[in-house]
């Protein structure tokens, strides 16, 4: 993508997510100073619509961009997701209004992969419980042997092997695990050999894996992919990891499996309802939970902003946006 390409100096940009001061400063640093950026102060409809009123481009991350928001932006030509998943953006409304939609394809792969491996280790070692008991003055090394497990020697099943799944596979190589994967689109045999992964069908993966880690986008086809029947088929000491989307999992079935100790543990960064207020999964001693923050690192966000600016410049000059970034 040519560095000489640039959007108009007075481009009107709506920043739809609510960021703290250091993030706003980073956005101002990375976006051209001549662009007129308006920051949303809340996720309330009125505030979102107000910043969209004159916008030609909207940058979105965590928040929802529905049909009403798009209708409130008569000049809007491009929505750019500062991440990879676009399930919170109304794509039908974008097409009806002829608004282009782009993303940072694989943009969160590195931090999400790191977070995924961290949750695997934390769930196996019961890190929240160990941390809490140690802080109270307990010294319980022998008791710890009963509840802790190690990652080495286990079979890890990756459900989805796109950019994030592959990044997880690469990071697990040094842990001496057996790697299996399922994806609707199988990789080449050469790529499988390079990553050290074995392709199996989904049900076999769930039956045979000690750790099941989800890395699929949320679509009509993948919603509830880990349903009650499949959770029932998991190995007795299986650990479930979800750094993808909460809608992939039947949470009631997962809760029952964890609370009855039919499976060992879960590491969850995403939930069906977010924030997960009053979600009983948060109360279990064998869950490790984080608040959809796997991709939320300062350094990676800086890189995604640079990527989005380059795509926006290209769009305005009629140059192609990379196929991995252009949704439609």
What labels would you give this structure?
Rossmann fold; 2 domains; alpha/beta; 328 residues; five-stranded parallel sheet; 12 strands; seven-stranded parallel sheet
Which consecutive residue ranges, at least 5 long each, have pLDDT under 50? Answer: none
Query: CATH homologous superfamily name of the largest domain?
Result: NAD(P)-binding Rossmann-like Domain
CATH topology of the largest domain: Rossmann fold
User: Class of the largest domain in CATH?
Assistant: Alpha Beta
Précis, in short:
The chain has 13 helices and 12 strands. It has helices at residues 21-30, 45-52, 67-71, 91-97, 109-124, 127-135, 141-147, 163-172, 189-195, 202-208, 228-232, 251-259, 298-317, and strands at residues 12-15, 36-39, 57-60, 78-81, 100-102, 155-159, 178-182, 197-199, 211-214, 239-242, 265-268, 287-289.
Blueprint of the fold:
Elements: E1 12-15, H1 21-30, E2 36-39, H2 45-52, E3 57-60, H3 67-71, E4 78-81, H4 91-97, E5 100-102, H5 109-124, H6 127-135, H7 141-147, E6 155-159, H8 163-172, E7 178-182, H9 189-195, E8 197-199, H10 202-208, E9 211-214, H11 228-232, E10 239-242, H12 251-259, E11 265-268, E12 287-289, H13 298-317
Describe this structure in words.
The protein has helices spanning 21-30, 45-52, 67-71, 91-97, 109-124, 127-135, 141-147, 163-172, 189-195, 202-208, 228-232, 251-259, 298-317, and strands at 12-15, 36-39, 57-60, 78-81, 100-102, 155-159, 178-182, 197-199, 211-214, 239-242, 265-268, 287-289. It contains 13 helices and twelve strands. It has two domains: 12-107 and 297-317, Rossmann fold (3-Layer(aba) Sandwich), CATH 3.40.50.720; 109-289, 3-Layer(aba) Sandwich (Rossmann fold). β7 (178-182), α9 and β8 (197-199) form a beta-alpha-beta unit. With 328 residues, it is an alpha/beta fold. Helix content is 37%, strand content 14%.
């Amino acid at each position: 993508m040519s560095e000489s390409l640039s959007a108009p100096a007075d481009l009107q940009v709506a920043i739809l997510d609510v960021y703290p001061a250091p993030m706003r400063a980073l956005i101002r640093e990375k976006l051209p100073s001549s662009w007129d950026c308006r920051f949303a102060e809340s996720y309330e409809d009125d505030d979102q619509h107000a910043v969209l009123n004159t916008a030609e481009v909207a940058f979105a991350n965590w928040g929802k961009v529905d049909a009403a928001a798009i209708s409130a932006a008569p000049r809007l030509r491009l929505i750019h997701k500062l991440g990879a998943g676009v399930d919170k953006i109304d794509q039908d409304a974008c097409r009806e209004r002829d608004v282009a939609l782009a993303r940072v394809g694989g943009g969160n792969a590195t931090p999400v992969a790191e977070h995924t491996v961290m949750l695997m280790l934390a769930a196996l070692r019961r890190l929240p419980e160990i941390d809490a008991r140690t802080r109270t003055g307990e010294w319980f090394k022998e008791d710890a042997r009963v509840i802790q497990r190690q990652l080495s020697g286990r079979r890890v099943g990756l459900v989805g092997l796109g950019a994030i799944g592959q990044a997880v596979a690469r990071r697990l190589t040094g842990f001496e695990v057996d790697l299996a994967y399922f994806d609707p689109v199988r990789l080449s045999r050469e790529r499988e050999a390079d990553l050290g992964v074995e392709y199996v069908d989904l049900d076999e993966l769930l039956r045979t894996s000690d750790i099941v880690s989800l890395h699929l986008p949320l679509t009509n086809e993948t919603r509830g992919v880990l349903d009650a029947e499949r959770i029932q088929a998991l190995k007795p000491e299986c650990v479930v990891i979800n750094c993808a989307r909460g809608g992939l999992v039947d949470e009631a079935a997962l809760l029952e499996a964890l609370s009855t100790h039919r499976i060992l543990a879960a590491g969850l960064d995403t939930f069906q309802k977010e924030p997960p207020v009053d979600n009983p999964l948060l109360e279990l001693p064998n869950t490790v939970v984080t608040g959809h923050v796997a991709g939320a690192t300062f350094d990676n966000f800086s890189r995604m902003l640079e990527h989005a600016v380059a795509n926006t410049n290209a769009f305005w000059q009629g140059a192609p946006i990379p196929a991995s970034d252009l949704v439609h």
